[in-house]
Design goal:
The structure is a single chain. The protein is mostly helical and 111 residues long. It has a domain of 54 residues. It is built from 4 helices and no strands. Helix 2 runs antiparallel to helix 4 and helix 3 crosses helix 4.
């Protein structure tokens, strides 16, 4: 873990706190959504349907229901994950500005 932290420190050495926070928050929002896409399909589709005020009709074809669920999931993702990513960005900027210099000073080369 210490080696991973040391490598990360050298990657973000030349970045401003805002750039490092943006890199981490966008990476987490986009990176987490991809592996959890199938797991989150139903909750995000329900959130999207609630936000749009629509529901898939029972008489619709399976292709229509799947397409509507996918669109609703994207709407749910946009309305939930993007604000959470923005909040994560603000939190990371504050943490990096206040705590990272003292944390980084404690790291030493693993070699």
């Amino acid at each position: 873990m210490r080696e991973l932290a040391w490598r990360f420190q050298h990657v973000v050495d030349d970045l401003e706190p805002e750039q490092a926070a943006l890199l981490l928050s966008v990476g987490l929002v986009l990176g987490v959504f991809s592996p959890l896409q199938l797991v989150l399909l139903l909750p995000l589709a329900r959130a999207g349907a609630w936000l749009c005020g629509t529901a898939v009709f029972a008489g619709a074809s399976p292709v229509h229901r799947l397409g509507a669920a996918a669109v609703q999931a994207v709407i749910g993702w946009a309305c939930i994950c993007i604000p959470l990513g923005a909040l994560l960005y603000v939190i990371l900027v504050l943490v990096i500005r206040r705590g990272l210099p003292t944390w980084v000073n404690g790291l030493k080369s693993p070699a």
